[in-house]
Design goal:
The protein is of the alpha/beta class and 178 residues long. Helices cover 42% and strands 26% of the residues. The protein has 6 helices and 6 strands, in the order ββααβαβαβααβ.
Length: 178
């Protein structure tokens, strides 16, 4: 059985976007090496808002060049609250991942203490409804302990900024409106 790891982060810059970067089990080591090589000495994780523009461009181009792929779940302003937008994005994420039945899936969400309990309830229901309790697991982690959360962070930042920034990552992005 193939395994895939899905790293999830969000941005609320203009509209609500959730980004899920998928790394197959056999590609984890190379993905970790790409992210590790982008860290400056003493830096523990990537976070685009903390980077200078030149570094942001380097990061975006390196992640795209490594063919790291992601889906942008674009909730826009179609939902009355960010909580509802997040719920719609997570439901769409699980539905999309459930379309492949023979793949063990491990979802890692960027940890925000205010959202952990509601995420767990929503994901529990969504995974059960999809019939994937045996093959789909999820947990929240901090970016400082899971460096691959830097991938969806970078993609979300670039996508939300649009234009020039989005052009760097466009080839490796799929967009789903929710």
């Amino acid at each position: 059985m193939t395994a895939r790891h899905v790293y999830v982060d969000e941005t609320k810059h203009r509209d609500y976007l959730m980004v899920a970067a998928v790394v197959l089990g056999e590609d984890l080591t190379s993905a970790r090496a790409v992210v590790h090589d982008l860290l400056k000495p003493g830096q523990h994780h990537l976070h685009m808002k903390d980077e200078a523009d030149g570094r942001k461009e380097t990061i975006a181009k390196a992640l795209a060049a490594a063919d790291l792929r992601a889906t942008v779940y674009d909730a826009g302003r179609r939902h009355r609250t960010q909580v509802r937008a997040r719920a719609a994005c997570l439901a769409a994420l699980v539905d999309g991942l459930a379309s492949t039945s023979d793949v063990e899936t491990f979802i890692v969400l960027d940890q925000d203490e205010t959202l952990v309990q509601s995420d767990r309830r929503l994901l529990y229901r969504a995974v059960r409804a999809a019939g994937h309790e045996a093959t789909m697991r999820y947990e929240h982690r901090r970016a400082a302990t899971e460096q691959l959360l830097g991938i969806p962070d970078a993609f979300a930042w670039c996508w939300a900024k649009g234009g020039y920034w989005r052009s760097h990552i466009r080839p490796v992005i799929t967009v789903q409106t929710v």
